[in-house]
Amino acid sequence: MKILVSSVSLIAFLLVVLTGPLYKYDIIELGTVFTGFKYGILTAVAALVLLVLQVIFKRNTLTLANVIVTIALSAVAIGLPLSMLSKSKSVAPIHDISTDLVNPPEFVAIAPLRADAPNPVAYAGEATAEQQRQGYPELKTLVYSQSKAELVNAAEQVAKNLGWELVNIDANKGIVEATDTTAWFGFKDDVVVRINDNGSERLVDIRSKSRVGGSDLGKNVARIHDFIEELDIILAK
Known about the structure:
- The protein has helices at residues 2-17, 19-24, 30-57, 64-90, 126-135, 148-161, 219-236, and strands at 96-98, 142-144, 165-170, 175-181, 188-198, 201-210.
- It has 237 residues and is α+β, with helices and mostly antiparallel strands.
- Strands 1, 2, 3, 4, 5 and 6 form a 6-stranded antiparallel sheet that branches.
- It is elongated and about 80 Å long.
C-alpha cells in the first residue's frame, strides 16, 4: 500500500511538472500540456484518497516519510495548475502590452522570427488597448533627460541583465529588440524598446508580446516593470 500511494503521487507530480520541458523541446503540443494538468490533478487527488485509506485501514504500514512525500508531490501537482488558473483570472486576458497604446513600438528585426507564431506581429488593436487601460493603468510613456545614445546603451544593458536574447540594436533609430524565453515552458516573448527625441527630453516606450497564448498570465506587464526598474537603476549610477 505504501509503495502504491507514493507511486501514484509521483505519477501525478510528473504529469504536471514534465509538461513544461516536454513542450519546450517540441515533444508535446500546448493542448497536451493542459491534458497533463487535468490528469495530474485527478491523479494527485487519487493519491491523497489512497493516503487517507492507508491511514484508516493500513496504519501499520504508514511512515512519516510516506506521508510527507505523498502530500508534497500531490500539493505540487494540484497547486501549480490551480495557481496558473487563478493567475489567469486575476489579470487582463491579453498578451500584447505597450506603454504607448496609440502608436505602439513596432517589431522590425523580430518580425521574421514571429512568422510562424500563432500570435501575429501586428498590434492586437483597440480592444486589447482598452483592456490594458483597465488592467494596467500605470503603464505610460517614460520621459528621460539622457541622450538617445545613452538610453540605447542602457536599454541594451538592461536586456543583458534580465537575461534576454538581443536581436537588434539600432542606435540611430533608437530601437532595441530582444527575446525573453521562459524557463519552464520555453515560451518566447518579444520585446521592443523605442527611444524618440522630444525637444530636450527623450520618450521611451516598451512593448512586450507573447508568441503563443491568448493570456500571458501577467508575464508581459511584469517584464515591462522589470525593465523600467532595472533601467532606472542603471541610469542612476
